[in-house]
Write a structure and sequence with these properties.
Blueprint lengths: L54 H14 L6 E5 L14 E4 L5 H11 L4 E7 H7 L1 H9 L5 E6 L2 E2 L5 E2 L18 H4 L5 H6 L4 E8 L3 H19 L4 E7 L3 H4 L6 H7 L1 H4 L3 E5 L2 E2 L2 H20 L6
Parallel strand pairs: 1-2, 1-3, 3-4, 4-8, 7-8
Antiparallel strand pairs: 5-6, 7-9, 9-10
């Protein structure tokens, strides 16, 4: 790696954690389209979800991953019950609608009948971790060759915005207006940590869609999960942290920062199980802090390095 700074100086007067870009002149290279505006497996970009919702981004991510792997003709989705259920009519893949919380069991049946299919569930935290926790845990413990995708925003969005099992301590919801209190409501369930310890789980990861880096990282996680299933290695799981400004009582534009400040501080992103190696959320948090200190040290020394 080179010791040359990415750009010509330290952080600007605002103290932003990143290199300073010269905006006094137009860029030397014109803007160009690097990705299609609409994934080929998404029939329309129109939806009825709230402004600032992160779920459309998450859906785009895993549909792109399926297309890139050339598995579109084999894909079968099993949808749970939540805001995301509206995508049942706009995703161009075969789909089965499950009862609340039961998608992993339905996916098990589909996969056993069609073993060559790419079978995945689409569920929210209320659907998976509240209503159907036993379903996903038993599916993972059996090592079923399916992929479960969890869209985690810490609220029951569709049914009014009340607390779920993943809501973090202090988080305001419709029925915890003063914030989730551990003495009254208990502690959040870190579902990825539970699944990673099960022998049947081959790949477990937690991503996010609150910034461009998170979107790119989550797509890689989805690809790895689908590849795990295609290789017959066992159960795979990807949790995606998504924004819900309506349910969080914050302005639409504040959704990404609120996710980083609340959910992501507890449900830390990263790969929890890869090739048999398990890393806890606490270990991911420690690694994140170490990386942050490294970046801060580079900025203090004059800028980030390549």
């Amino acid at each position: 790696m080179s010791d040359r700074p990415v750009s010509g100086g330290a952080a600007g007067p605002s103290g932003a954690a990143g290199p300073v870009l010269d905006t006094s002149a137009p860029p030397s290279q014109p803007a160009r389209l690097v990705e299609a505006h609409r994934p080929e497996l998404l029939l329309t970009e129109e939806h009825s979800l709230c402004p600032g919702c992160g779920e459309p981004l998450a859906v785009r991510v895993f549909l792109d991953a399926i297309s890139e792997l050339g598995l579109a003709s084999q894909a079968i989705a099993v949808a749970g019950i939540g805001c995301y259920t509206m995508f049942s009519g706009t995703m161009d893949v075969d789909l089965v609608q499950a009862l609340h919380g039961r998608a992993p069991s339905v996916a098990t049946g589909v996969k056993r009948m069609l073993p060559d299919a790419l079978v995945f569930t689409l569920q929210g935290d209320g659907d998976m971790v509240n209503e159907g926790l036993q379903e996903v845990l038993h599916t993972a413990a059996r090592g079923e060759r399916v992929t479960c995708i969890l869209l985690n925003n810490g609220v029951f969005g569709e049914t009014g915005g009340h607390m779920t099992a993943t809501s973090v301590i202090g988080q305001r919801t419709k029925n915890t207006l003063d914030g989730r209190d551990a003495r009254e409501h208990g502690y959040p369930i870190l579902i990825g940590d539970l699944i990673s310890r099960l022998e049947g789980a081959a790949y477990v990861a937690r991503g996010s869609v609150h910034n461009a880096g998170g979107v790119a990282r989550t797509k890689r996680m989805c690809r790895r999960a689908f590849e795990t299933q295609a290789a017959g290695e066992g159960f795979s799981f990807v949790e995606v942290l998504t924004m819900c400004p309506t349910g969080w009582f914050v302005p639409t534009a504040d959704g990404p920062d609120e996710l980083q400040r609340t959910l992501a501080e507890v449900h830390v992103v990263g790969e929890l199980k890869v090739d048999g190696r398990i890393r806890t959320t606490q270990e991911l948090h420690a690694e994140s802090l170490a990386k942050q200190r490294e970046v801060e040290a580079q900025l203090a020394a004059g800028g980030l390095h390549e």
